[in-house]
Design goal:
This protein has one domain. The protein contains 2 helices and 9 strands; from the N terminus they run ββββββββαβα. It is of the alpha+beta class and about 130 residues long. It has a 9-stranded mixed beta sheet, with no helix packed on it. The radius of gyration is 16 Å and the shape is globular.
């Protein structure tokens, strides 16, 4: 039985791009990130991104660095980057097969580079958030 990408057991793939200071040419990733229970925090590549409703360029912000990121579901047509942007896209090795199936492709586009993203230790962020105020 083939997995349906809309099933909860088969979480969606996400496109994540650094926007701060990058002029739509920032580093970009395709991955399946972890989310907090309430889905207000997204974890990937040892970062914690929180929703940013008042952002200038991005819809998420890094809790530690303050950098803005654009996060969206992967588009079936492959046009995830801003129309004025460009550059390579890093795709997590664990999602390559799912990405190819979603896009109905036999191989990755040439601007994609397969990488291994280390899982994020979310306890690091939980300890910081729950530390007593001094």
């Amino acid at each position: 039985m083939q997995k349906n990408y809309r099933d909860n057991a088969y979480p969606a793939l996400y496109y994540i791009e650094l926007k701060t200071g990058q002029a739509d040419r920032g580093p970009a990733w395709i991955t399946r990130p972890q989310f907090s229970r309430e889905r207000k925090t997204l974890y990937f590549a040892n970062k914690a991104l929180i929703r940013n409703k008042g952002g200038i360029q991005g819809n998420y912000v890094d809790k530690e660095s303050g950098e803005e990121y654009w996060v969206s579901g992967v588009k079936k047509n492959g046009k995830d980057r801003h129309w004025a942007g460009g550059g390579p896209i890093q795709i997590d090795a664990t999602v390559v097969a799912d990405y190819l199936a979603l896009r109905h492709l036999d191989q990755l586009p040439k601007q994609f580079h397969i990488v291994t993203l280390a899982p994020t230790d979310t306890t690091r962020f939980h300890i910081h958030e729950n530390a007593p105020i001094t």
